Sequence to fold (113 residues):
Amino acid sequence: VQLQASGGGLVQPGGSLRLSCAASGSIFSRNDGGWYRQAPGKQRELVAVITSGGFTNYADSVKGRFTISRDNTKNTVYLQMNRLNAEDTAVYYCYMFTARHYWGQGTQVTVSS
Fold:
């Protein structure tokens, strides 16, 4: 299983970004997937999950601002991030869980003016 994450960058507070995670070797719609993030000096935290059945769940810190979705035709999971703030600055990692976690390479999100 290979996951290719993209879409990170530098954005001003209040701005938006959309992260993408394209999979090969396995299928997102048959497995759970999502996003973690890790800020400097902090532990990796779960941001959002989408199950094989399409159920979604979010960390309290991003509820109402982030939306996880999946395009089955592209075998890709997205994370739409709105109203970004400095506390969202981190490296974001996508994952797929199929017997074990598979990870994307990480994409940096920096929120700064």
User: Anything to note?
Assistant: The chain has a mean pLDDT of 96.
